[in-house]
Amino acid sequence: MKRDTITWKETAAVHLRAWKEIRQYCPGVFPAIFLYGLLSALSPYVSIFLSAQLLNELAGAHRPEILGKWAIAIIALTALLSLLTGAADRWQEAACAQFYRHKDKRYSDKLRSMDFADMDKTQTHDLLSQIRQNESWSGWGFNQFVGQMAYLTKGFFGILGAAVLSVSLFTASVPESAGRFTVLNHPAFLVVSLLLLTGVTVLGPFCKNKSTGYWARFSQEATLGNRLFGAFGFASSEQSRAADFRMYNQQTICRFYMEANRTFCHGGVMHQYAKGPMGAWAAAAGAVGAVLTGLVYVFVCLKAWAGAFGVGSITQYVGAITALSGNMSLLLQAAGTLKNNVPYMRTIYQFLDIPNTMYQGSLTTEKRSDRNYTVEFRDVSFRYPGSQLYALRHVNLRFKVGSRMAVVGENGSGKTTFIKLLCRLYDPTEGEILLNGIDIRKYRYEEYMQLFSVVFQDFQLLSQPLGNNVSGTLHYDRQRAGKALEDAGFGERLETLPQGLDTMLYKEFGENGVEVSGGEAQKIAIARALYKDAPFIILDEPTAALDPIAEAEIYSKFNDIVTDKTAIYISHRLSSCKFCDEILVFHQGAVIQQGTHEDLLAEETGKYHQLWHAQAQYYTK
Ligand code: ADP
User: Fold this and answer.
1) What pLDDT digit, counting tens, does each position of 273-299 carry?
2) Which long-range contacts (CB under 8 A, 24 or more apart) does 291-297 make?
3) Residue 221: CB within 6 Å of ligand 1?
4) What's the pLDDT tens digit per position in 500-531?
5) 562-593 pLDDT, tens per residue?
6) Distance of alpha carbon 549 from its chain centroid, rounded?
7) Are 346 and 426 in contact, with CB atoms under 8 Å apart?
8) Pocket flag, ligand 1, residue 412 (CB < 6 Å)
């Protein structure tokens, strides 16, 4: 498989953008990280330095009053720095927790604000689910960036602190009396030692980055492996799937797909690499670290032996150089991890950069108190994105507010598509839809949406109190919500609920939740549409879970409820629609008949006549 090359330039650009974005919606994160990085990097040096002074005094003049002062300074400063570091850590954790919430909100806001057609695409969901998988299995993406910023800061300040404490190791001269050891004063020796220490210090992280680089090289396989696990690993424990799993042994298929992907299995691609070069590089990184510690001890002890400094300073220099190498590793590894993070950031930006092309209208929809709206479809044809087939073909029609319109036709004839275009979830491929004579694309999208209350076939309620579901808000008009439920036919059931509008729906959030039946849920969804009180109310076969009698009841009652609104009913039960002023018959994406029930029934060769009689036999039996 061809692997992308990731450059340092791209690494910097991608993360600079992430930095700017995070700062915009979560400004506290980086100051908190920097403060914590600074304090946690410098704290160890304070104790290293003070302990060295104490030891030097102990090994030298050992004056009790000076020893006491150093001891008090060590205790006081260490305690103070621990407290400050702890406080900064809390601040950092709180800021990061806030950042995680904002990040998730950013994804859902993007999903909600993009063109519906894009949101509907498999690729979009694919991208989002890749992003979530990458974040949840190893924190790749934004999380990794924030995490590595903490290491970068700590590494940077740590190197500065160590450099300050170890300068004198290189500058302190061995006295002339040390004989052969005076060679340690030779500039060449200093240069060689510095080069050796730096080389070994850099070599460790280099090996480590080589090892972790395999995660970036296999990001696609790893993502797929995790997605399959996410999709099929937990499917059998989902309550909504429990019955199907038992009935159709679906675990066999799930297990097959999980096991067919061998990314993380014994003998799989990651296993091969862990056993091979990935593991070897990791082992080399460990070995290099050990060599470095040895070299530092040799160098420092040689100088101390020759009398360049006291015994106390040995701890200072060994501590400082070891910390220097640790922090250098931290810095380089963080940089390497950021480079490995690039493919994951690319996926995030591929999702966030999906353009919103649809919502560019600027006209405001007239808020007409007479609700006198006219809608016209002018030669509208439509193909779903990516599809070659027309779901609607040359639809021409016009209707005024206040009318009752029914849309009937066989499955797949285009009824739902017609509603989706009317509500501007999609724009027509050809032709135009006009509201009061103006193309609906010219209106402000949010305002245009306010004109419609739709109960879709696959509506969803939230596991929240009943009243909040109906109103869609936290604070609502209880009387209006109660009336909407009553009008939707839920009145009697409401009376049986001791907590009324405050009844929690479903059991997701507590045992007191009420499980409502499919039919009851549909009535609540209808009440929600009524509560919105929009000029157009559309029921897209929302009564499918109701028996024919309950459906007929709702529809006939609806006539009174919708008053001056325009009601559009989509139903496959023709008997429920016959009271409408106008009935549209859809067939293969086109409106093939239009008229009242009586007119259409009179056309004996027409589709409506055929459908009516096909259904009537069930009811007359
Ligand atoms: P109806 O509501 O009358 O059952 P639809 O409007 O849902 O019919 O569907 C009309 C046609 O459009 C069908 O052929 C259906 O397969 C197709 N279709 C519906 N939704 C999509 C979609 N999201 N992507 C592609 N094709 C779709």
Assistant:
1) 888 899 999 999 889 888 888 888 888
2) 291/200, 292/197, 292/200, 292/201, 292/204, 292/325, 293/322, 295/196, 295/197, 295/200, 296/197, 296/321, 296/322, 296/325
3) no
4) 999 999 877 767 788 888 888 888 998 999 99
5) 777 888 888 877 777 777 888 999 999 999 99
6) 44
7) no
8) yes
Task: Give the pLDDT band (50/70/90) at residue 450.
Answer: confident
What share of residues in the chain are helix, strand, coil (percent, to 5)? 65, 10, 25
Q: Give the DSSP letter of residue 180.
A: G
Q: Which of 124, 383, 384 to mutate to test the pocket of ligand 1 (most atoms within 8 A of CB)?
A: 384
CB-based contact 393:591 (threshold 8 Å): no
Are the C-beta atoms of residues 184 and 306 closer than 8 Å to each other?
yes
Query: Which amino acid residue places its CA nearest to atom 21 of ligand 1?
Result: 384
- Residue nearest atom 17 in ligand 1 by C-alpha distance: 391
CA of 577 to the centre of ligand 1 (A): 22
What are the E-state strand segments in 164-307? none
The string of pLDDT tens digits covering residues 373-403 is 788 999 999 999 888 899 999 999 888 767 7
| 116 CB near ligand 1 (under 6 Å) | no
Q: How many residues does this entry show for the chain? A: 621
Question: Are 251 and 236 within 8 A, CB to CB?
Answer: yes
**How many whole angstroms from 526 Cα to the centroid of ligand 1?**
23
State in Å: Cα 574 to ligand 1 middle. Answer: 20
Question: Which are the contacts of 419, defined by CB distance < 8 A and separation ≥ 6?
Answer: 407, 454, 538, 540, 568, 570
**Spacing, Cα 498 to ligand 1 middle (Å):** 42
CB of 409 within 6 A of ligand 1: the answer is yes
Angle at CA of residue 226, ends 222 and 231, nearest 5° = 150
Q: Which residues of 221-250 are buried (b: 16+ CB within 10 A; e: fewer)?
A: bbbebbbbbeebeebeeeeeeeeeeeeeee
Q: Which residues pair with 378 in a beta bridge?
A: 432
- Cα 575 to its chain centre, rounded Å, is 45
Q: What is the phi-psi region of residue 397: left when phi exceeds 0, alpha when psi lies from -120 to 50, beta otherwise?
A: beta
**333: closest CA among 285, 287, 288?**
285
Ligand 1 pocket, residue 416 CB under 6 Å: yes
Give the type of residue at 608: Y
**Per-residue pLDDT at 542:** 61
Q: Which protein residue's CA is at the shortest distance from atom 24 of ligand 1?
A: 384
- Show contacts of 528-531: CB within 8 Å, 24+ apart: 528/453, 528/455, 528/469, 528/470, 528/471, 528/472, 528/484, 529/453, 529/454, 529/455, 530/453, 530/484, 530/487, 530/488, 530/561, 531/470, 531/471, 531/472, 531/476, 531/480, 531/481, 531/484
pLDDT for the residue numbered 247: 81
Among 379, 358, 378, residue whose Cα is nearest residue 441: 358
Residue 417 Cα, ligand 1 centroid: separation in angstroms?
6
Q: From the CB of 391, is ligand 1 less than 6 Å away?
A: yes
Amino acid (one-letter) located at 567:
A
Select from 407, 415, 416, 591 the residue to mutate for testing ligand 1; criterion: most ligand atoms less than 8 Å from CB.
416
Q: Which atom of ligand 1 is nearest to the CA of 589?
A: 10
